[in-house]
Write a structure and sequence with these properties.
By secondary structure, the chain is an alpha+beta fold. The protein folds into two domains: about 230 residues, no CATH class; about 45 residues. Helix content is about 50%, strand content about 15%. The protein is built from twelve helices and nine strands. The strands form three sheets. It has a four-stranded antiparallel β-sheet with strand order 5-6-4-7, with no helix packed on it. The protein has a three-stranded antiparallel β-sheet with strand order 1-3-2. Strand 5 and strand 6 form a beta hairpin. Helix 3 crosses helix 10, helix 8 crosses helix 11 and helix 10 runs antiparallel to helix 11. Pfam families: PaaX (PF07848), PaaX_C (PF08223). It comes from Alloyangia sp. H15. InterPro entries: PaaX-like_N, PaaX_C, PaaX_trns_reg, WH-like_DNA-bd_sf. Keywords: Plasmid. This is PaaX family transcriptional regulator C-terminal domain-containing protein.
Amino acid sequence: MNEAAVETSPGPLALAGLRAAEAPRAPAFIVTIYGDVVEPRGGMLWMGTLIECCARHGLNESLVRTAVSRLVGAGRLEGVRIGRKSHYRLSDAARAEFREAARLLFAPPPAPEDWLVCLSEGVRDAELPLPWARLAPNVALAPNREDIAPLDGVLLRARQLDGHGDLGQLAAERWDLAEVAAAYESFLLTHGALRELLAEGVPLSPEDALALRLRLVHDYRHAALSDPRLPRSAYPQDWPAEAARRLFVTAYLGLSKYAETHVGAQFLSPEGHLAPRNDETERRLFRLRREAAT
């Protein structure tokens, strides 16, 4: 984002620590817009609305059109021309991928408590899907989660025996936890002021609230999707994921009551304005409220 431009127009974005933030990468940010705003409301958006929304984040029309073309070429977006207007929606593959991301954002499963171990000669030369990690030429390890794709071979379930070995060191060597921690810490630094902003009741325009929420989702999604989501005992004591999660839940709930007004007023699909809220958006908010109350 252009720092000078924000400096001459102070407001919530500066208060939230976004003044010095760089503009997001256009393709990834467009996917964030679709996943957070468009997909739960029917899935299609007019190109003009997309350009206007991205402009608030330092992405000009040329960047947006180029990014959309690349996303179409990569099979991530699909275009539909209605009259003189172009509308775009997520492809089936991208929609399925973001459904998984949305589950992590709005209804995260419990942290795993133990591990899966795969014994197989097929592991030796295979490129292992994340979060599987190789322990030895024919041994691979992953957190025991429902969404883990099993590898071909003998699968075992394992727990660490207390007092035997340094699980944290092993995890740090097999997964890039330092990079994940840096992503969470960057999220906390960038968006931490939102908690105070909302607690103090600083007035927010619907447009400002949506801009803040989109960046919140974009940055948190980047950090959370890079996290291998290991058993808690594998992480260091000062692991920042819990603090980042609390901030995300609090800020998303606080911003949504304003942000969704802007969606209903300005976001256009072939059928007209997108609904400010519907059953799916209410489900997301209900899950976050329930989580915040625990």
